[in-house]
Amino acid sequence: MVALVRPRMDAAAAATRDQTPNGGNPGIRVRDLTLRFGAQTVFENLSFEISGGEFVALLGSSGVGKSSLLKIIAGLADATAGSVIGTDGLPIPGRIAYMGQQDLLYPWLTVMQNVTLGARLRREPVDRPWAEHLLERVGLSTRQKALPAALSGGMRQRAAIARTLYERQPIVLMDEPFSALDAITRAMVQDLAAELLADRTVLLITHDPLEACRLGHHLMVLSGHPARLGEPFTVPGQPPRAPDDPAVLTSQGHLLRLLVEASR
Amino acid sequence: MTLIQAQDPASTPEDPETVAANEDVLATPSSRRPERWLRFVIPVVMLLLLLGVWQVYVTMANVPQYILPSPLRIAQALGTDWGILGSALLVTLKITLSALILALIGGVVLAVLMAQSRWIELALYPYAVILQVTPVVAIAPLILIYAPSTQVALLFCAWIVAFFPVLSNTTQGLKSTDHNLLNLFEMYRASRWQTLRYLQMPNALPYFLAGLRIAGGLALIAAVVAEFAAGSAGAGSGLAFRLLEAQFRLNIPRLFAALFLLSMTGVVIFLGTSLISHLLLRKWHESSIRREN
């Protein structure tokens, strides 16, 4: 893990990340993953690989097993069979940052304390310049001492992004992180996330086809009982793609049709 | 107010959220002032009205004071008998507060133990329930036999009654931590102690404080009930004994005075625990934050 943490830089230099696009960040390799609860098979022999530095969006209807898959990759839950490992051959837990459906900010901590929570739990000195830089990037530099209850939904989700990024982890797992936001805030926060996560390996779970088409280098669809992965799918152009990009609109419509057909 | 940035010089007035917040700050006090004023005046007027009716009725109907003393007569008894009642109040206060403090310590320690291990919970929880559901009046005679002194017996009785709400509420609070937050702590590789200290304990605080408010009232009730059951006498006796004694002697004004002191003690305990709860939660918990709509 130590080898993957970038050397400490001042905040300005940290902004222009010094790594090549794939930056040596490991990818995620999933092999023959099976999950059963009693007689019910959620998914069986799931295999895919996300290469380092790639942003992959995983779509699927509710209850298809997306969140379970993410928990297994994060090491929070055990699969019935199969393996999850980094493309560099090392295990994944300990190298991930996570963003959930809710912002998961701790209501009794200020924005700054929330962002630097990981450091405090690891008993490291807090990297204040880095945290301040991130808060500035997400537009919250004047709200460092605010408690989450005093922030709007969009601000809270932006604080959550800053906390995710503070960890400097090579792999970022996101479970419908923007689903609770209104359409305008969501579009803005998506752009911000795409920009700030540019060279990380990201697995984003969503059931919003537009979000997937705007943000993902590649898209995957999980559907059926037991769930199977459809053919990976690429939208032309580099993310974040404009919401009115014809390719995005076409892919979005195609995906929505796939998803509806799959849930019938 | 929860909107801290209103005073923050760094926040720009162009920020729509800041502007909205400023308007909110300006609008709130003026629109609430008459209501706040009435909230104080109405109860006071009602109280004076009731006392007046009582006083007038007793004087006009010539009710003997051993049946119903007038408010003025009770106030007089409170003054003349202060030597007896004051020291009894101190005794009752001491028992109530020490029982409450011990209940808080015992309840929290047991709750933390139970939240750490399902085995400990299975082993201990039934006994906590048995202690709680058995009426304290029925246990008191036994406790009186085994306790080294009446004071210790009273303390123990009050503790038994007061500790259960603390235990049960704190356990509930520790266990009801959001699973997503727990997952996040696990991903941060937080230790068990860190999860307890930085996540479960703050999360349990509102539950604990609700338990504290119940326990505060119960500790006083139990201290009184236990004294009734124990029938202690002499210099070290509390308000409950003085109340019974006044009844035997048909000194009804003193009985009312003792009763008044007891209910005032209860009210003060309630206000105190509510204040503590408000001060600890006002910034972040839903129960204390004013709704924005």
Automatic annotation (TrEMBL), chain A:
<dbReference type="InterPro" id="IPR050166">
    <property type="entry name" value="ABC_transporter_ATP-bind"/>
</dbReference>
<dbReference type="InterPro" id="IPR017871">
    <property type="entry name" value="ABC_transporter-like_CS"/>
</dbReference>
<dbReference type="GO" id="GO:0016887">
    <property type="term" value="F:ATP hydrolysis activity"/>
</dbReference>
<feature type="region of interest" description="Disordered">
    <location>
        <begin position="1"/>
        <end position="27"/>
    </location>
</feature>
<dbReference type="Pfam" id="PF00005">
    <property type="entry name" value="ABC_tran"/>
</dbReference>
<feature type="domain" description="ABC transporter">
    <location>
        <begin position="28"/>
        <end position="249"/>
    </location>
</feature>
<dbReference type="InterPro" id="IPR003439">
    <property type="entry name" value="ABC_transporter-like_ATP-bd"/>
</dbReference>
<comment type="similarity">
    <text>Belongs to the ABC transporter superfamily.</text>
</comment>
<keyword id="KW-0547">Nucleotide-binding</keyword>
<dbReference type="GO" id="GO:0005524">
    <property type="term" value="F:ATP binding"/>
</dbReference>
<keyword id="KW-0813">Transport</keyword>
<dbReference type="InterPro" id="IPR003593">
    <property type="entry name" value="AAA+_ATPase"/>
</dbReference>
<dbReference type="InterPro" id="IPR027417">
    <property type="entry name" value="P-loop_NTPase"/>
</dbReference>
<keyword id="KW-0067">ATP-binding</keyword>
<protein>
    <submittedName>
        <fullName>Putative hydroxymethylpyrimidine transport system ATP-binding protein</fullName>
    </submittedName>
</protein>
UniProtKB/TrEMBL annotation, chain B:
<dbReference type="GO" id="GO:0005886">
    <property type="term" value="C:plasma membrane"/>
</dbReference>
<keyword id="KW-0813">Transport</keyword>
<protein>
    <submittedName>
        <fullName>NitT/TauT family transport system permease protein</fullName>
    </submittedName>
</protein>
<dbReference type="Pfam" id="PF00528">
    <property type="entry name" value="BPD_transp_1"/>
</dbReference>
<dbReference type="GO" id="GO:0055085">
    <property type="term" value="P:transmembrane transport"/>
</dbReference>
<feature type="transmembrane region" description="Helical">
    <location>
        <begin position="95"/>
        <end position="115"/>
    </location>
</feature>
<keyword id="KW-0472">Membrane</keyword>
<feature type="transmembrane region" description="Helical">
    <location>
        <begin position="207"/>
        <end position="235"/>
    </location>
</feature>
<dbReference type="InterPro" id="IPR035906">
    <property type="entry name" value="MetI-like_sf"/>
</dbReference>
<feature type="transmembrane region" description="Helical">
    <location>
        <begin position="122"/>
        <end position="146"/>
    </location>
</feature>
<feature type="domain" description="ABC transmembrane type-1">
    <location>
        <begin position="89"/>
        <end position="277"/>
    </location>
</feature>
<keyword id="KW-0812">Transmembrane</keyword>
<feature type="region of interest" description="Disordered">
    <location>
        <begin position="1"/>
        <end position="24"/>
    </location>
</feature>
<feature type="transmembrane region" description="Helical">
    <location>
        <begin position="255"/>
        <end position="281"/>
    </location>
</feature>
<keyword id="KW-1133">Transmembrane helix</keyword>
<feature type="transmembrane region" description="Helical">
    <location>
        <begin position="152"/>
        <end position="170"/>
    </location>
</feature>
<comment type="similarity">
    <text>Belongs to the binding-protein-dependent transport system permease family.</text>
</comment>
<feature type="transmembrane region" description="Helical">
    <location>
        <begin position="37"/>
        <end position="57"/>
    </location>
</feature>
<feature type="compositionally biased region" description="Polar residues">
    <location>
        <begin position="1"/>
        <end position="10"/>
    </location>
</feature>
<keyword id="KW-1003">Cell membrane</keyword>
<dbReference type="InterPro" id="IPR000515">
    <property type="entry name" value="MetI-like"/>
</dbReference>
